[in-house]
Amino acid sequence: MIMDAGQRFDPELPDETRSTSNTDIASVNQHPPCFLNLLLAVQHVFVQCSLLVLVLGVLQQHLLLQDGERERLLSSMLFYSALSTLIQSCLGTCLPLVQAPSLETLIPAVVLTAQIVTEPACRGHCEESEEDILPRANPVRELQGMTVIVGMVQLVLGVTGLSGVVLRHCGPLVIAPLLCLLGFSIYREAALLCSDHWAIAALTVILLVLLSQHLRSYMLPACLSMPQLPVCRMLSLLLPLLSVWALCEVLESFGVLRLRSVSELLPALKTSNTSLPELLRSDPFTVPWLSPPLAAEIGLPLLSVRGMAAGVVAALSSSVSSVGMYLLTARLLGVPPPPAAACNRGLGSQGLGSVVAGLMGAPLGLSSSVPNTCTLGLSQSGSRWTVQLAAILGLALGVSPRLTQLITSVPLAIYGALLSVTYTIAVATGVRYFQFTHIDSGRNIFNIGLAVFMSLVLPHWFLMQTVFINTGMVSVDVLLHSLLTSPVLLVGILAFLLDNTVSGSSSERGLDSAEMEKTGWTSVNSEPGYHQEVELIYESPYLLRRLWKLPWLRTAPFSACRITDDGDVL
């Protein structure tokens, strides 16, 4: 059975009811109405900015920035993210994925910058020549070098097909803990932002729940002569954000409300200068209207051994997170899971975006944004055109620090509420994957508990004991400390090793379930019309398909990014 482009795909539905399950989901290839598409794109931009403000707020304490550089850095990060989003949606998985710096790339960056700041100013005696002085004047350049390494590693994982090889051995007992820990990974930061004003955060959450759940089926009145769509659910993040933001502006103008900055919320984030949110609200007229993100303003990336070590860990961690987002997106939109070739293209495109971003001055590598992916589940609107329009808006905002300043001046409590609600979707979807396994098995209970618990305990302990790892080699210290403080990478490694080394039957591991057959990783699906459905969503653009057919590109490694006629990877 071949389904229409706008029809929802659910492997758990029987054949006779699957054709009638065409809900009002905007499919990946569908065009929403123009005005609604614009609102959905603006909603994605606000969610993306919530993550950017948090990431930069944590990173800025380690960067030696001059006054006025923070706004340009934030706008440039938005520009690089938008550029990578366009690359991903056109050349990668072709899923509606938004790219952004994430906590997975932030952790190794913080470890690296901590080493730069705490190292001595010179080797040996300070009266030595200037050539012996370590390059610590501008840590942003070394972060740029780390970003280039992140992109190169991701590019290698994608074009060589290594990620597809690993995916063939990932069952529900690997995917479920990964998604759960991705959802739990931001609870401390989200609580920090909500503590700016708990009443504002609670009001935002209540409105979001009301629109996305209680009013999810509400349609616009027919007298308005507009398409009958569940607008409340589709804009369940944008409407509460704008409403509560307007209320905060009114209360601030009357002196009733005083919102705090990141440095006031967390003393560890205090710097000698004003924090980013406070600066964006207090001195708007010093920010330029136009400032293209050019690497010449900071300098070319600085490659170092310790930067390469941090970049490898950041690349692996962000790759694990991004593959989880590919599966999460397909699950939330009800489309077939991405084949290994699509995941390979996704990581390759993500790596290309990170390399370009690093060469242009980005301090962090890019990965698929978790809150934007979870937004698809809340709004049930997953059109690729919406994400591409959001990327175009991001490019426009990225060249104008003044406009970026305006859109990121949202109170931190509202951003915290958005992150708190969106990340819960990842946790809930991860729990759902347990239904495909024999959850009462003692083997599965032990593997899940050990992988999740150790992935939470180890990073917490090593963050408190920062001097415990001291091998005498800075690059090795950065590598080990970055690895042992990255919970997403740890849970991926532990769950993968335990599931593939501890003996268990295929039914016990969930490998013979309908969900895993749909992935095409364990077996080629023989359902009539299934391969056409996969091609409809994940096939490469026309020019790339012609490129794959060239004789000298039909062999490895490039064949790993091409879907063959039987739906498998060559």
TrEMBL record:
Cellular compartments per GO CC: membrane
Record has Amino-acid biosynthesis as a keyword: no
Protein name per its UniProtKB record: Solute carrier family 23 member 3
Intracellular or extracellular location(s): Membrane
Assigned keywords, A-Z: Membrane, Transmembrane, Transmembrane helix
Principal location class: membrane
Membrane topology of this protein: Multi-pass membrane protein
Gene from which this protein is expressed: slc23a3
Organism: Oncorhynchus mykiss
Basic and acidic residues bias locations: 7-18
Residue ranges of the TM segments: 145-166, 173-191, 197-215, 235-257, 410-433, 445-463, 478-498
Segments of this protein annotated with the region Disordered: 1-22
GO molecular function: transmembrane transporter activity
Keyword Transmembrane applies: yes
InterPro entries given in the database record: NCS2
UniProt record similarity statement: Belongs to the nucleobase:cation symporter-2 (NCS2) (TC 2.A.40) family.
One Pfam family per UniProt: Xan_ur_permease
